[in-house]
Amino acid sequence: MSGALSRLDGAFSVPYEKLAGFPAARVEGHAGRLDCGDANGVPVVVFRGRFHLYEGRTPAEVAAPVRLAKALGASVFIQASAAGGIGKGFLPGSLALVRDHINFTGSDPLASVPMEKRRPPFLDMSEAYAPALRARAKEAARSVKIPLKEGVLAVTHGPTYETPAEVRRLGRAGAHAVCMSGLCESVFARALGLPTLFFLVITNRAAGLSRKKLAHEDVLRRAEAAQGRLSRLLEALLPLFQ
Ligand code: HPA
């Protein structure tokens, strides 16, 4: 999803290698640089490439962009990921907004933070994706006539895609979509008091819901094809934060 907002005014880039605490991106098709500039008159930093638990990163490494965004004074952290569709209507090519998530990674991202550094020690997650922000995202989508479903995201550890039996279980648990990214970012953003929005590009029906086997190349191709629409949506959304 790292090609969204490709035209920034007055832009400059910093490769991740030059940012202290930033590991270089490792996944093919994922870039590794920070772009700073204005999008539709709004100052943004765009992280092109993210870190994943399935690369063997720690939750704190995965959340490095969130900490940097907070340190730079960001007022909102917006993320986007490819995802498999589970719910009715979560079809390949469509865009969706995360209303809530279910953590299926097997561990809690904040468990890696020493207890004495956690304030509060147990984090409330009841409105991890603030209703007021989601309302703005939906308003922006309407204004550019881009259909935007809202649903619950299941996040798995990866790197295996789910089995059909796991997808049936996720569906019964209330998930409309599944991906392997974004959980650590959302949890750390919440812990840091940085409001967050999470968009999904549904790149495939999750395993067992279509006859097609899952392939990273197909996911990349679908994600790429949706980039223009995601950019238009973001360009309509950003001015609503000013
Ligand atoms: N499962 C998990 N992650 C994904 C999928 C999927 O089906 N599609 C894109 N990312």
- Unreliable residue runs: none
- Approximate strand percentage: 25-35%
Overall form? globular
Span from first to last CA? 24 Å
Number of strands: 8
Radius of gyration: 17 Å
Q: What is this structure's SSE topology?
A:
Blueprint: E1 9-15, E2 33-39, E3 42-48, H1 59-62, H2 64-71, E4 77-85, E5 95-104, H3 131-143, E6 148-156, H4 164-172, E7 177-179, H5 183-191, E8 196-205, H6 216-237
Helix pairs in contact: 2-5, 3-6
The structure holds hypoxanthine.
Would you summarize the structure shown here?
Helix 2 packs parallel to helix 5 and helix 3 crosses helix 6. The protein has 242 residues and is of the alpha/beta class. The two termini are 24 Å apart.
How would you describe this structure to a colleague?
- The chain is an alpha/beta fold.
- The protein is 27% helix and 26% strand.
- Strands 4-7-6-5-8 form a five-stranded mixed barrel, surrounded by five helices.
- Bound molecules: hypoxanthine.
- Hypoxanthine binds next to strand 4, strand 7 and strand 8.
Features:
242 residues; alpha/beta; five-stranded mixed beta barrel; three-stranded antiparallel sheet; 6 helices; 26% strand; globular; binds hypoxanthine
